[in-house]
């Protein structure tokens, strides 16, 4: 029988390999960001070189409103990827989240697959990561502190993944008491607590509960990008678990599209918001800022580039920044505050959905 550590390493490896080797993107839905149209400004009254993409989030200055979203750790491949992502975060002034770190509590070997990020990014804003299901199961405040200490984190994210836990062959779909545990964590741990989904979105009802629980920020992580139900469906298929395979197929596109989640969450709470879930370029980052996000986060595009080479990763970052700056130039936004107040028009399915939710 394989050991617990070997099982964890294989699951974490699957979480890298399947998105890179299989098509596990949304099938029948999208982020709805294609229904957000920024208004062109033919008289921007600024020079491209004058554009300032820097911003401040949770007391830290960033070169741009960009976070490398939580992805991986707990396997040998993750050491290379997190090392490269850490280098990028340090050089470019981006934020960076780590994958779920429960594995790092199991051994020093697994902890090193996460701490490499801090080794390569001594000054970057790093976000530690634990699961809501693990809090419900009994993960303690002291263990959460160890997870923060593992990467000398600037913040701690609690990820909510009921859909993934439901479909995952070895999942733990137990969420009773999670909100209370999040509230306790926010009151006692000495870094800001962020709560994020992992691709199914945050509703206004959940956002209000999280704000009342005292969290510092919310990452909406909506539908339209990588489907974790799809990833777990493929894992279930390989393990010949027909029921989980069926559930993964049925709920592949379940969730609130990213733009819809961002808009309704922005209207519901005053907390800083991170937009993620299927973002693929700098134009979409700009759209999210215009819709009310303080930061935008991406996982799959950074994972894909980091898995190829350090050069591919840095070239991708340059492209994202050029796309963001170009969008700002075309709407006449000299800085992120101006971008945040840019005019936009909602069209199609998003306009209909937003109007139906008001």
Automatic annotation (TrEMBL):
<dbReference type="GO" id="GO:0000287">
    <property type="term" value="F:magnesium ion binding"/>
</dbReference>
<feature type="binding site">
    <location>
        <position position="226"/>
    </location>
    <ligand>
        <name>FMN</name>
    </ligand>
</feature>
<keyword id="KW-0285">Flavoprotein</keyword>
<dbReference type="GO" id="GO:0016491">
    <property type="term" value="F:oxidoreductase activity"/>
</dbReference>
<comment type="similarity">
    <text>Belongs to the IPP isomerase type 2 family.</text>
</comment>
<dbReference type="GO" id="GO:0005737">
    <property type="term" value="C:cytoplasm"/>
</dbReference>
<dbReference type="GO" id="GO:0004452">
    <property type="term" value="F:isopentenyl-diphosphate delta-isomerase activity"/>
</dbReference>
<feature type="binding site">
    <location>
        <begin position="100"/>
        <end position="102"/>
    </location>
    <ligand>
        <name>substrate</name>
    </ligand>
</feature>
<dbReference type="GO" id="GO:0008299">
    <property type="term" value="P:isoprenoid biosynthetic process"/>
</dbReference>
<keyword id="KW-0963">Cytoplasm</keyword>
<feature type="binding site">
    <location>
        <position position="100"/>
    </location>
    <ligand>
        <name>FMN</name>
    </ligand>
</feature>
<feature type="binding site">
    <location>
        <position position="196"/>
    </location>
    <ligand>
        <name>FMN</name>
    </ligand>
</feature>
<feature type="domain" description="FMN-dependent dehydrogenase">
    <location>
        <begin position="181"/>
        <end position="342"/>
    </location>
</feature>
<feature type="binding site">
    <location>
        <position position="129"/>
    </location>
    <ligand>
        <name>FMN</name>
    </ligand>
</feature>
<keyword id="KW-0414">Isoprene biosynthesis</keyword>
<feature type="binding site">
    <location>
        <position position="165"/>
    </location>
    <ligand>
        <name>Mg(2+)</name>
    </ligand>
</feature>
<feature type="binding site">
    <location>
        <begin position="299"/>
        <end position="300"/>
    </location>
    <ligand>
        <name>FMN</name>
    </ligand>
</feature>
<dbReference type="InterPro" id="IPR011179">
    <property type="entry name" value="IPdP_isomerase"/>
</dbReference>
<dbReference type="InterPro" id="IPR013785">
    <property type="entry name" value="Aldolase_TIM"/>
</dbReference>
<dbReference type="InterPro" id="IPR000262">
    <property type="entry name" value="FMN-dep_DH"/>
</dbReference>
<comment type="subunit">
    <text>Homooctamer. Dimer of tetramers.</text>
</comment>
<keyword id="KW-0460">Magnesium</keyword>
<protein>
    <recommendedName>
        <fullName>Isopentenyl-diphosphate delta-isomerase</fullName>
        <ecNumber>5.3.3.2</ecNumber>
    </recommendedName>
</protein>
<dbReference type="GO" id="GO:0070402">
    <property type="term" value="F:NADPH binding"/>
</dbReference>
<keyword id="KW-0288">FMN</keyword>
<feature type="binding site">
    <location>
        <begin position="70"/>
        <end position="72"/>
    </location>
    <ligand>
        <name>FMN</name>
    </ligand>
</feature>
<feature type="binding site">
    <location>
        <begin position="11"/>
        <end position="12"/>
    </location>
    <ligand>
        <name>substrate</name>
    </ligand>
</feature>
<keyword id="KW-0413">Isomerase</keyword>
<dbReference type="Pfam" id="PF01070">
    <property type="entry name" value="FMN_dh"/>
</dbReference>
<feature type="binding site">
    <location>
        <begin position="278"/>
        <end position="280"/>
    </location>
    <ligand>
        <name>FMN</name>
    </ligand>
</feature>
<keyword id="KW-0479">Metal-binding</keyword>
<comment type="function">
    <text>Involved in the biosynthesis of isoprenoids. Catalyzes the 1,3-allylic rearrangement of the homoallylic substrate isopentenyl (IPP) to its allylic isomer, dimethylallyl diphosphate (DMAPP).</text>
</comment>
<feature type="binding site">
    <location>
        <position position="164"/>
    </location>
    <ligand>
        <name>substrate</name>
    </ligand>
</feature>
<dbReference type="GO" id="GO:0010181">
    <property type="term" value="F:FMN binding"/>
</dbReference>
<keyword id="KW-0521">NADP</keyword>
